[in-house]
Amino acid sequence: TVQHAKKVAEQMKSDPVLQQCQQYLLKRAKTHKNWLADWWLNKAYLEYRESVVINVSPAALIQMVHFKTQDDWLKFAAQIVLGTYRAKLNTESAEFVESQRKAGQCISQYYKLFNLCRQPAMPRDKMVVYPTAGPNAPRHIVVISNQQFYAVDIVDEKRNPVEPDELYKQLAWIHAQTSQRAEPSPVGLLTSLPRDKWAAAYNALREDANNSAVLDTIESCMFVLCLDQCKPEEETTTRCGPHSSPESLCANLLLHGGGSAVHTGNRWFDKTHQVIVGGSGHFGMLQEHSTAEGVIPTRLLCDAVINAAKATKKNIAVGELESLQPENQPIRLQFTLNRPEIPDNINEAAQLIDKSISNLDLQALMFEDFGKQFIKTCNISPDAFVQVAMQLAVFRYFLDPSEDVECQLLVPTYESGSLRAFQYGRTETIRSATSQALRFCRAVCAHPQSPASLPSLLRDAASAHIALTKAAMQMKGVDRHLLGLQAAFHLLDKGNLPKPALFTEQFVQYAGAIQLSTSQVPVSFPGFMCFGPTHADGFGVCYNIQPNFINFGVSSLRDSPKADTATFMAEIRNALLTMRRILDNHPKAKL
Predict the structure, then answer these.
(1) What does the buried/exposed string (b/e) look like for 314-331 if buried means 16 or more CB atoms within 10 Å of the residue's CB?
(2) Is 118 in contact with 52 (CB distance < 8 Å)?
(3) Are 551 and 448 in contact (CB under 8 A)?
(4) With 565 labelled, which of 50, 97, 172, 422 sits at a CA distance of 20 to 30 A?
(5) Is residue 217 within 8 Å of 333, Cβ to Cβ?
(6) Which of 46-50, 401-405, 468-472 has the lowest mean pLDDT?
(7) Burial bucket for residue 509 (CB in 10 Å: 0-12, 13-18, 19+)
């Protein structure tokens, strides 16, 4: 109960072990620029031992593109690669640095996307980092086409980008070499394994000198370009269903590749930044999540599209591939599979990831009735409005008609709150399931005819969410502090410290099992980010609020007896319309 939680919280003040832990945090804060950063990287990411695919790494659909010809596809890919490099350079400019300084935002995440890679290890993975500037900085990207790897230099010795025509020729040459035959043993699938299994296979690969050099080349590249060829299996293996939207199909292909028979082997899931351009029109990015929040690479890729649009004023000439001299041809990165267990590992990876993909129900909700323009006319924060709508949606979804509505509760909810106001800051949890949101949800369900009290209850819920958001972004949230106390306890405990009651309290365990995981990624393009659910019976929801529409990526697991994506999407849509109707029925409530 709330009363019990308050009692435990009061007891915290006199718990001598918790006081020791708090003093440890205060001392650590004096010797670290950010007392949480290293712990967060390790505990939230590098110590995670399941597959990073679906579970950790988010994807972003930037836009769907219609390519009339194969050349159009490859020209677009070339321009996006060079646009991405220009976007990278923009983040290093004095103007960008100054703009972020004035905005009070730490820019370190922008510099943790290129030339670095997650590396499997036991019991904790590593991040390998290469220089991004200077004479020793790698000049290449890695292109994956039909599960085959190539290194392509995109800048010269002076760090000037290559001409678009030249890059197009190299991509066309790669496509010509790979289009007729996929790699029979796609090593990229290994990166989808649970981390300990992948670490063992990785170490076996590293024992061969050639493989070690190939791994170094992949891990050190600026970023990866995944050229996904059109395959008829795209629609059948993602299990989106016959009535799913094209956006749903694209989101699945970007998040996991569609399965071992489609594009999953056309990835290197450990690479921090992968740009994906599919011949069938899916275009976006996949991020290994350890070093940055999803909004950073998504904004960079949006900038890359803008850069590419400017560059396309100069047409790329379609040249003869024979004119590509041997010294200018991309370098094939071919693994030596001389260990008998490696093919077995690849087969196991295919089976495991295909099972995970078939269990994921990820769909796109394109809500077109209104967007932020209408919400702002109501003098309500667009994000708060959407978050309250999702509380109403999940309340209705889990509503038990056999019980009194006043006995129904909300579920533990996470919204990502940015801590970039602090050096090396990442995120804090915004706990959207507030008592104000609960009162609003109960009132809506108990009085569906929109009584006069509903507008004020809606505004109270939105105001509570805004206050929580501000507190979280000022590092006044609960979750990261609790994580710090737990980490401090484990470091201080030599087997003789009694565990604080706070750590084992039932309500703490309950609140930590996030059943509704949400994030807003506001970007200028009409796409959206997507990720898998964090709870076996829950939902993952990412959204992008545009002036006149709102796009959502919604996911759940098919084997859950309690969570169904399509039904929950319908509840989100109904909740948004209900809230608009509440405000429309009471015009004064808009003022």
Answers:
(1) eebeeeeeeebeeeebbe
(2) yes
(3) no
(4) 50
(5) yes
(6) 401-405
(7) exposed
Q: What is the DSSP letter of 36?
A: T
More confident call, 427 vs 240: 427
Which H or E run contains 26?
helix 16-31
Question: What does the longest C-alpha to C-alpha distance in the chain come to?
Answer: 78
Q: Rounded to whole angstroms, how far apart are CA atoms 450 and 443?
A: 9
How far apart CA 498 and CA 188 sit, in angstroms, is: 46
The residues facing 439 across adjacent strands are none
- SS3 string, 122-189, reads CCCCEEEECCCCCCCCCCEEEEEECCEEEEEECECCCCCECCHHHHHHHHHHHHHHHCCCCCCCCHHH
| Packed helices 195-206 and 209-220: angle between N→C axes, nearest 10 degrees | 120
Distance in angstroms (rounded) separating the CA atoms of residues 91 and 111: 8
pTM of the predicted model as reported, rounded to 2 decimal places: 0.95
| Tally of CA atoms within 13 A in the half-sphere of 220 that contains its CB | 17
The Cα–Cα gap between 357 and 189 comes to 13
Which structure tokens are listed for 185? 């043993």
- Quick count: other Cβ atoms within 10 Å of Cβ 459? 19
Lowest mean pLDDT among 138-147, 228-237, 515-524, 540-549: 228-237
Which residue's structure tokens are 């667009």?
A: 382
Distances (CA, A) of 84 to 113, 285, 306, 419: 11, 11, 10, 25
Report pLDDT digits (tens) over 4-52: 878 888 888 889 999 999 999 999 999 999 999 999 999 999 999 999 9
| Whether 334 contacts 214, CB under 8 Å | yes
Whole-angstrom distance, CA of residue 56 vs CA of residue 50: 9
**Residue 164 and residue 317: Cα distance in Å, rounded?**
9
Residue 574's Cβ-count burial label (10 Å; 0-12, 13-18, 19+) is middle
HSE-up of residue 340 (Cα within 13 Å, Cβ side):
0
Q: Are 437 and 410 in contact, with CB atoms under 8 Å apart?
A: yes
Check if the beta carbon of residue 361 is closer than 8 Å to that of residue 413.
no
Q: How much of the chain is helix, strand and coil, in % rounded to 5?
A: 50, 15, 35
Average confidence score pLDDT of the chain: 93
Which pLDDT score, from 0 to 100, does residue 8 have?
A: 81
* Residue 289 a catalytic site member: yes
Asked if 373 and 548 count as a contact pair (C-beta separation under 8 A), the reply is yes
Q: Which residue in 273, 289, 465, 535 is the catalytic one? A: 289
CA distance linking residue 45 with residue 125, whole number of Å:
8
Contact between residue 188 and residue 146 where contact means Cβ atoms under 8 Å apart: no
b/e string for 410-431 if b means 16 or more Cβ within 10 A?
A: bbbbbbbbbbbebebbbbbbbb
- Looking up tokens 């290449």 gives 140
